[in-house]
Design goal:
Length: 285
């Protein structure tokens, strides 16, 4: 079954009486090479015994490619109307399990331990993420400290630009610096809007987050680090000293900035993760 074929997609959905759900941000791939490339990027760096957690399989287009390359695939689908469709399209994929669950309400640590770790499988995530919920899903995946090798996801192109931006770039922001603490973010390739049905109004980009085994910086208190990052970008048009007042007493900020070797008028987007860590330790003291 060729799930990137437009007539096949319509025939399968019509037979099961389902339609595209705008509330779930559903856009299905109709470009044959894209799911192949995503699957290879998600599985390619993994050691032997590979388990993939897929978020939002849709009608199973990417899922089938993942099942050909991984030892086991577990897919979380929030839309219950698509479960019968997936039962059909994945019928010949015995190493694949579909769960009708919301990723944001699922205990992912328990799921990964049960489905992958207990079976001696390494785990990674692959997904074509709905645009409207991209950031909450990515942050849940990294903040939960899951035993994952990597996270390979297709997201809105503009969001991807923010996630991979270097310090000093106009796109660099709080999520950029926060993600750098958890993993190395790589831009892999772009996907034009015409590769989907229905076609979204924007293009997409596939990124891969290779998770750190240990954080790249040592800090006395992680929560202080994230408070510094959050405060640094709370008021982007203001200097770092003024912006940090949303998180820390104003009288301690100038001395900490000076002790960190930063100029008094520097702005938050100029700081690297190492700068944020150094400043966080000084403010912690």
């Amino acid at each position: 079954m060729k799930l990137t074929d437009l007539s096949t997609i319509r025939e399968v959905m019509t037979r099961h009486g389902v339609s595209f759900q705008k509330k779930f941000g559903q856009n299905f791939l109709i470009s044959p090479q894209v799911p192949v490339n995503i699957a290879e990027a998600a599985v390619g760096l993994m050691p032997e015994r590979r388990g993939i957690l897929e978020i939002g399989p849709g009608i199973g287009t990417l899922t089938r490619e993942l099942s050909e390359r991984a030892d086991k695939v577990v897919a979380l689908e929030i839309d219950s109307s698509l479960i019968p469709v997936l039962d059909e399209t994945l019928a010949d994929c015995p190493n694949t399990k579909v769960l009708n669950q919301d990723v944001l309400k699922t205990d992912l640590c328990e799921l990964i331990d049960r489905e992958f770790i207990s079976e001696g499988l390494h785990a990674a995530v692959a997904a074509n993420l709905p645009y409207y919920i991209t950031t909450p899903i990515i942050m849940k995946l990294v903040e939960s400290r899951l035993p994952l090798e990597s996270i390979t996801v297709m997201i809105q192109k503009e969001v991807a630009a923010r996630l991979v931006a270097p310090a000093g770039d106009p796109e660099y922001g709080a999520i950029t610096a926060s993600l750098a603490y958890y993993g190395r973010v790589e831009r892999l390739f772009n996907v034009p809007a015409g590769c989907f049905i229905p076609a979204p109004k924007v293009d997409s980009t596939v990124i891969r987050i290779v998770l750190h085994k240990n954080p790249p910086v040592d800090v006395k208190n992680e929560q202080t680090l994230f408070r510094v990052i959050r405060g640094a970008f709370a008021q982007r048009r203001k200097t770092l000293a003024n912006s940090l007042r949303t998180e820390f007493p104003k009288e301690i900020i100038p001395a900490a900035i000076a002790a960190a070797g930063l100029s008094a008028d520097i702005r938050g987007e100029k700081l690297s993760l190492e700068d944020f860590a150094r400043l966080a330790d000084l403010l912690e003291d």
